[in-house]
Amino acid sequence: KQHIKEAQAFTTEDKTTLEEFRIKYLGSKGLLKDFFAEFKNVPNEQKKEFGQVINELKNTAEEKVKSIQELLESKTESINLFGDLSRPGTPINIGSRHPISLVKNQILDVFSTIGFNVSEGPEIEDDWHNFTALNLPEYHPARDMQDTFFIQTNPDVLLRTHTSSVQVRYMENNKPPIRTISPGRVFRNEAISSRSHCIFHQVEGLYIDKNVSFADLKQTLLYFTKEMFGKSKIRLRPSYFPFTEPSAEVDIYWGLKTETDYRITKGTGWLEIMGCGMVDPNVLKNCGIDPNEYTGYAFGMGIERIAMLLYQIGDIRMFYENDVRFLEQFKSSL
Ligand code: PHE
Q1: Which of 130, 154, 211, 266 shows a CA-CA span of 20 to 30 A to 326?
Q2: Is 205 in the pocket of ligand 1 (CB under 6 A)?
Q3: Taking every annotated instance into account, which residue ranges of this chain make up the domain Aminoacyl-transfer RNA synthetases class-II family profile (predicted)?
């Protein structure tokens, strides 16, 4: 009974002391072992009481060991939680930039090194900024080229079909010299396929100063393609835009190294990457700039096409589906 009292009073915060306690009472050479061995020598009439007492001692000692063990374990666990920095952490799922943003930023970087600033404007536009100021008066046949989404017809409110509208706004609010690029989302009512979509992104550029010539435009394009793609084999094909005269389309020779190259360039190795030209004097006039004093060039490109080439993406629809298996592949390209 004395042992029971002692066992009940026992307490420790130290594992070794606890182990000593366990060995003393419950070990293979411990007290209880002795008591149980003694049991057969106890006279019959005392067996019952003796048995009860040693059982109580056994339970007390066992419970004591168990409860102190649990206490000590919970303590070391909470110490580890804060103290053991070698424990593996829960991974934080950091996002990735969208490939359109990656390519857009790259384009902006290239032009910022040659003095272009960045300008932005609204996605919902009026007729003046998207068409009329750009030399597409009402009933101009080239309006059909644009497959416009109209939100409202009187007065005309629409989703911009190109970021040339931003250039108009910029010219209205700034005096030359102007060197600006305008990135943004544009909308056209086109059939969706692997090559085209009704929403896409553009970067358009505008340079206006005294004596700007077509040679300046061509040199800028050579510089851009060299910086952006590491190669500058390009060709300019005469073309038509209402807001530029003369106008051209720019193709880059990309080659046919992969199946995706083959698909994107329709098997020619050449891909049209932008439209460009000398700003039409009517546009300058419409925006309050004197065409007798200033000339300028403009260009516009689709970001998706360039991203498809650079990242070898065979289907434009991938950009808008937001499938994480697709997006995760750009994690390392922050
Ligand atoms: N705005 C034209 C388009 O969206 C591109 C372009 C811009 C062409 C500037 C010439 C000059 O197709």
Answers
A1: 266
A2: no
A3: 103-321
Backbone angles phi, psi at 42, to 5 degrees: -75, 135
Please check whether residue 166 is in contact with residue 121, taking contact to mean a CB–CB distance below 8 angstroms.
yes
In degrees and rounded to multiples of 5, residue 305 shows phi and psi of: -55, -45
pLDDT at 82: 63
As a whole-number percent, the residues of the chain with pLDDT over 90 amount to: 55
Question: What tens digit of pLDDT does each residue of 8-50 get?
Answer: 888 888 888 888 999 999 888 888 888 888 888 888 888 888 8
pLDDT of residue 13: 84
Confidence grade of residue 260 (pLDDT, cut at 50, 70, 90): confident
- CB of 187 shorter than 6 A to ligand 1: no
- Cβ burial of 78 (10 Å; 0-12, 13-18, 19+) is exposed
Can you give the pLDDT at residue 275?
Answer: 96
Best of 203, 221, 241, 272 for a ligand 1 pocket test (most atoms within 8 Å of beta carbon): 241
Q: Is the pLDDT of residue 155 over 80?
A: no
